[in-house]
Design brief:
This protein is of the alpha/beta class and 277 residues long. Helix 3 packs across helix 4, helix 3 runs antiparallel to helix 6 and helix 9 runs parallel beside helix 11.
């Protein structure tokens, strides 16, 4: 038994109490968001700056981001996350969004700050990252955010409580096909990512994925995955920071998906429609 470990645990940074000041946005940030049609309510810019300050502070002791420069972080993290806002804004008040593989809270935290009328779930499997997210949510006073420390492969099979009334079976409280919008950023290639996101999306809902210049290549590679998971590519939107792949869930995901922990990454559902079906 190491008597030092309890002391070390108590000394871990708690960003909910850290003495940090909100970071100011660079001069061109508001111009970029205005081009996207994004307008901020009072206090939202300050909260975005405080979230970024907390992220950079926590990054001194945790591997949350490779970006160390605050000006670069405003563009690569905050602006990049907010490029999803116009697509999510089409959904009504109270809509449910889940951020798969949230990491340090991107894109979910900036979106939640800018859209307090939408309910966000930050799904993250790494305990230390979940600790940071929970503390940041507390520090920012976000009432529309839930941190979920789990793997997508597991919660995507959770249908919640089952009720059979007069021959009609309904489920409530689960995660499978429970979200209006599923978002993800920098989690993996599309063929893998679709298996981790599509099962969480409601029929008729949207899967919004932030990708880079290889989006078209990944879409072609993921043709079979889209076919098996019952999602359709609607469009790919260029943004100031990358590209957004927009998919629509047309029918229920087959019960076999997602497969067991790690399997989507080890054996992606890549290839053309009809291959290995």
């Amino acid at each position: 038994m190491n008597p030092e470990r309890p002391i070390q645990n108590r000394e871990k940074l708690d960003v909910s109490k850290a003495e940090v000041a909100a970071l100011a946005p660079p001069a061109d940030f508001l111009a970029s968001t205005k081009e996207l049609g994004i307008e901020f309510e009072p206090g939202e810019m300050a909260n975005l700056g405080l979230y970024l300050a907390l992220l950079m502070k926590a990054n001194e002791s945790q591997n949350l981001t490779a970006v160390r420069d605050a000006t670069e972080a405003w563009r690569r993290h905050i602006l990049d996350s907010l490029t999803l806002l116009p697509a999510i804004a089409e959904f009504p008040e109270g809509a449910k969004v889940i951020d798969v593989g949230s990491g340090g809270g991107l894109p979910g935290m900036p979106l939640a700050i800018a859209m307090p009328h939408i309910r966000f779930t930050l799904l993250e499997a790494t305990a230390k990252k979940c600790d940071f997210l929970t503390q940041a949510v507390s520090r920012l006073g976000l009432k529309n955010v839930t941190v979920l420390p789990e793997r997508s492969e597991r919660i995507a099979h959770d249908r919640g409580a089952r009720t059979d009334k007069f021959g009609t079976v309904t489920h409530s409280g689960g995660h499978r096909e429970a979200y209006d919008v599923v978002v993800a950023r920098a989690v993996g290639r599309l063929a893998t990512l679709l298996e981790l996101t599509a099962p969480l999306c409601k029929i008729g809902g949207s899967v919004l994925l932030i990708k880079g210049e290889k989006a078209d290549e990944e879409l072609k590679e993921a043709e079979r995955a889209m076919h098996l998971l019952k999602v359709v590519h609607v469009e790919t939107l260029p943004t100031p920071t990358g590209r957004i792949v927009i998919l629509e869930k047309r029918s229920a995901t087959p019960r076999d998906y997602p497969r067991a922990d790690g399997e989507p990454s080890r054996s992606p559902l890549s290839g053309k429609v009809g291959s290995r079906d």
